[in-house]
Design a protein that fits this description.
homodimer, BirA Bifunctional Protein, domain 2, 14 helices
C-alpha cells in the first residue's frame, strides 16, 4: 500500500497534486463540500509561514487585532463595486438562537466593510493616523469547483487594513507590503515571484489599484498568491472614515488592504515537489531532518540507537527541527519512502558501520549542486563526521533552501518567453502551456477579453520594471495597435 | 477628557469593568450585536496567552490542525446530550452562493462532531492512537446577554481533541490538560485557580466528566475559565471511531476535549485591575515597560531624549517588551495616567537630574513588597542606577508577576469561607457576595437546584483534595443528609 507509485507530474499534474496533498497528510476534504481539513503536516507548514510573516508585519510597524466573523448584509452592499464582486460568493446566516434574524448576517468573505466602519469611530484627527492593523482569520467564499489549498470555500488568511492621511502614503504602504510578500516568498518559500500591477478587469472589488505576486508552477500555470490593494477613498467615503487634517479641513482617509492565504501551501507544493512526493523548503519545514537508525541484530540496535539518540539531542539543542524515527514496525526502506513522500529536507542514516567510523550519512531531499555529485543513477549521499555535524547541518539546510530557489528561478526563466509579437504565437504557446508569455498590450479591455475567451490565458500582471524585457514591445500582440504596456499572459489557478 | 475618573470597583464593579475594557482600548462592541472587536491592546494580551499555551501543548505532545467552520446540521443532532446542550445557541447558514442549501450548515459552537467524524477515517488500529490534536479557532454561540470578553456571540479559543485506546489514558489526558491550564493561569496570568470536578448539571453536553478551573474575581464571583472533558466513548460510538485493539478486537476509542478562550482576558482584568485602570501581569503584557522622558527646555530635551533612547535600546536588546513614549503633544503627567490606565507593569521616568546622576526612576504599577516601601500616601518609586538596569528590570518584572499572584491568592484565601454548616448562613454569605463557600453536599440534583433557585449560587466544583478543607464536612448544608462531597458554592460569571 504505502509504496504505491505517485502519478507522474508529466502525465497528470492534477492527479499528482491531489495525491501528494492526501498521501503526505497535508489536507483532506471534509463532510462539508468545499471545506477542507488541514491536517497537522499541512498546518505545521502554515504555522511556520504565519510566524515568519507575523514578524515581518510587526517589523514594518503593524499590530494585530480581531474583527467579527459576521458582517451585516447591508454593509456589503454599500460599496457598489464591492457588492458586485462578492455577492455571488456569500454564505448567509439567516437564523440564530432558534429564531429568524431581522437582518441576515454574511460570513465575512473579506473584512473591508466591517473594519473601516470601526476605523471611522476611532479616527478623529491626523494624529490618529496611520492605522496599521492586520488580522489572522478564516474567511468564506462560496465556491463550486474547489481544490485543496488552492481554492476552498473556507480558507485561512491574514488581511492587513491600513488608513493614511494621503494618497501617496497609501500607495507606499501598498507597495511596501507587496514587497514584504515577495521577500517572504523568496526567502522562506523559495518561490521566485513576479510582481506587478493587475489590469482593471482583475482588480479587487472596490480598489483603485491591485498589485500581485505571481509564481510559475511546474505545469507552467501561474499562481497569484499574494495581493496588495490601494483602496483609495472608496471605503472611507462609504463608511464615513474622516479626519481633521493638519490644515484643519475634514478629509477622507486613504486605505490599503493586503492578504495571503493557505493557498500558498498549494503553491509551495506545485513549485518544488517531485514524482517522489512533497518537497519542503527547510525554513517552512515542520521537520527539517529525520534520523533513521539502521540495524539488524539486537546488539546493533543497542549501539545504533544510542548513537542516534545522542545525535538527536545535539541537533535538537542547536535549534534544528529534528525527528528520530524509532518506529519498530517499519523497515528503513519504508521509512525512507515515507519521509521522501512527506518532504523532509534532510534524511540522516545511522548504521553500525557509521557508529564505528563516527560518521553519519545525509541524503538531501533534492540534489545539492554545492556538494559532491552522486554516482550516476544514484541518490546524493553525504558522509559526514559526527564532530562536524553542528556546523554541517545548518549549512546543508541553507544550501537546500537556496537550491530550491535557484531551481525554481531557473525553471521560471526557462519558461518565460519574451518579445512575442504575433497573436498566433501566443495561441500556440498558451495551447502547449509554455509558461509566462511577455508581449505588448494596447491597454484595451477588448483585447484582454478576446485572449481570455480564445485561449483561457489572462494578463497576470503589468510587471514592475525589473521584470520587463530589455526591449520594450512596440505593438499590441492582439490588435497590432500601439503598445501601452508589456504584460505577462498565462493560464492561471 | 482623558483624566475622567474611572468608576470605583467598590461602587459599580460592572461599570468599572466595562470602562476599563473600553478606555484601555482592549475591545469594543461591533455593529453585529454580541460580536466584539478585539483591539490591538487586547489582542496583544491574547497573542501572548496563545504563544505560552501553544508551547505547553506542544511540550505535552500535541500538534495543531484546522477543521471547518461549518458543520452539517445533522452532525450536531447525532449525540443526544450534545444537541440538547447546543441547539438553542446555534447560528445557521441557510443560503450560499445565492441559493438555498439542501442541508443547513451550523457555524461551529464547538467541534467535537466534525473532528471525531474525521478521526473515524484516520484511525484503523491501536497503532494510530493516541491522536493528540489542538486547533486555534473562532466559535459562535448565540447569546442574548453578552459582555466584552466574558460572554460574546463569537469568541476565539483553542479546543484540544484527543483519542485514546483506554478509558484510563483518556482520564489521564483530561487531568493532564486541566493541570496545564492551572499551571498556565498561575504562572502566566497570576491567577490562582481552584481545580475540581463539575457536578452532573454543569457537565459539558456529551461528556462523561467535566473538570474546570475556577478563579475568584474581585467582586467575589467565580469565573470558570478553563474546562477539560472526558468524553468517554459517546462521540466515538456516534461517529464510528473504532480501532483494532492490541488483542485484535474492534473497540471504540476514548475521547477528551479541553478549551480556554478569550474569556481569560476578561478574567485577567477582573483579577488584577484597580481603580486606576488595567493591571497586566508582565508575562502577558504586550508592553512591559514604558519610558517617559521628562524635560522643559530644548536643551533638556536633547540630553534626556539621548539618554532615553540609549536606555530603550539596551532594554529592548535584552528582550524586554519596551516602549519609549516620545509623544510631543502630551505632558508627562498625562502619559503617566495613560499608561496606568493601560496597565503597563513598569513605568520609567528619566529627567535632566536623572541623566546627571546616571539613574532612572521606576514606578511599578502595583506596589512591590520586596522593594522599599513608599512614603505614606505616595506611589512606590525606585531609584535605579543605569549600570544596574539590565539586572534590575527583569528582576522587577519577576517580582511584579509574583506579587500579583500573591495578592490574588491572599484575596481568594481571605474570601474562602470554610466549614459552613447552616443553609441560612449560605444564603447570607451568598447574598453579600462573600466569596467561595465550602460546605457539604449530599450529591442530589435537588439540593443543588434548590440553592441555585433560592440564592443564584451554583456548585462551582467538587474541589480536588489539595483544595479541600482539613475537616471534611459530615452533612449536606441544604438537606442535612449525609455529605457525599465538600463542594464550593458561589455566584459565577
Amino acid at each position: 500500500m504505502a509504496e504505491d507509485k505517485l502519478p507522474k507530474r508529466s502525465e497528470d499534474f492534477s492527479a499528482w497534486y491531489n495525491e501528494i496533498v492526501t498521501r503526505a497528510e497535508l489536507a483532506e476534504h471534509s463532510p462539508v463540500r468545499g471545506c477542507m481539513v488541514i491536517r497537522p503536516n499541512g498546518y505545521g507548514i502554515w504555522e511556520l509561514m504565519q510566524q515568519a510573516l507575523d514578524r515581518m508585519f510587526k517589523d514594518t510597524g503593524h499590530v494585530n487585532a480581531y474583527f467579527p466573523l459576521f458582517i451585516p448584509q447591508s454593509f456589503i452592499t454599500r460599496e457598489a463595486a464591492h457588492v458586485e464582486g462578492f455577492a455571488p460568493e456569500l454564505a448567509v446566516v439567516t437564523h440564530g438562537g432558534g429564531k429568524e434574524l431581522e437582518e441576515p448576517l454574511v460570513v465575512r468573505p473579506t473584512s473591508e466593510t466591517i473594519i473601516y466602519s470601526m476605523y471611522a469611530k476611532w479616527v478623529q484627527s491626523y494624529r490618529d493616523l496611520p492605522i496599521l492593523m492586520n488580522q489572522w482569520a478564516n474567511v468564506v467564499r462560496w465556491e463550486m469547483r474547489t481544490r485543496l489549498f488552492l481554492r476552498t470555500m473556507e480558507f485561512l488568511w491574514q488581511e492587513g487594513h491600513t488608513a493614511h492621511e494621503t494618497e501617496q502614503q497609501a500607495e507606499e504602504e501598498t507597495l511596501r507590503m507587496l514587497g514584504v510578500y515577495r521577500t517572504f516568498m523568496e526567502e522562506y518559500l523559495a518561490m521566485p515571484a513576479v510582481t506587478g500591477l493587475k489590469t482593471d478587469s482583475e482588480r479587487f472589488a472596490g480598489a483603485l489599484r491591485t498589485y500581485s505576486t505571481e509564481v510559475l508552477m511546474q505545469d507552467n500555470k501561474a499562481l497569484q498568491n499574494g495581493t496588495s490593494h490601494n483602496l483609495g477613498q472608496n471605503f472611507a467615503k462609504v463608511f464615513g472614515l474622516q479626519f481633521q487634517s493638519r490644515e484643519g479641513s475634514l478629509e477622507y482617509a486613504w486605505n490599503t488592504s493586503w492578504g495571503v492565504s493557505t493557498r500558498m501551501v498549494g503553491g509551495l507544493i506545485m513549485t518544488h515537489s517531485d514524482d517522489n512526493g512533497l518537497v519542503t523548503p527547510p525554513r517552512v519545514a515542520p521537520i527539517q531532518l529525520v534520523i533513521v537508525p539502521i540495524f539488524k541484530t539486537d546488539a546493533e540496535k543497542l549501539t545504533v540507537m544510542e548513537a542516534a539518540e545522542e545525535v538527536f539531542r545535539i541537533i535538537k539543542a542547536a535549534g534544528v527541527r529534528v525527528k528520530l524515527d524509532d518506529r519498530d514496525s517499519m523497515s528503513p526502506g519504508s521509512k525512507f519512502y515515507d519521509w521522501e513522500l512527506k518532504g523532509v529536507p534532510l534524511r540522516m542514516e545511522i548504521g553500525p558501520k557509521d557508529v564505528e567510523k563516527n560518521t553519519v550519512v545525509i541524503v538531501p531531499r533534492v540534489e545539492l549542486s554545492q556538494e559532491e555529485a552522486p554516482k550516476p543513477g544514484k541518490k546524493q549521499k553525504l558522509f559526514i563526521s559526527r564532530t562536524e555535524l553542528l556546523a554541517r547541518i545548518p549549512q546543508l539546510l541553507d544550501r537546500l533552501q537556496s537550491q530550491l530557489y535557484e531551481n525554481a528561478k531557473a525553471r521560471r526563466e526557462a519558461n518565460s518567453i519574451r518579445n512575442v509579437t504575433s497573436y498566433d504565437q501566443v495561441k500556440e504557446l498558451v495551447a502547449r502551456d509554455a509558461g509566462f508569455i511577455y508581449a505588448g498590450w494596447c491597454g484595451s479591455a477588448e483585447c484582454e477579453a478576446k485572449v481570455k475567451e480564445e485561449t483561457k490565458a489572462t494578463i497576470r500582471v503589468i510587471p514592475f520594471p525589473e521584470f520587463q524585457s530589455a526591449e520594450k514591445p512596440s505593438h499590441c500582440v492582439v490588435c497590432g495597435g500601439s503598445a501601452k504596456h508589456e504584460v505577462i499572459w498565462s493560464k492561471a489557478y
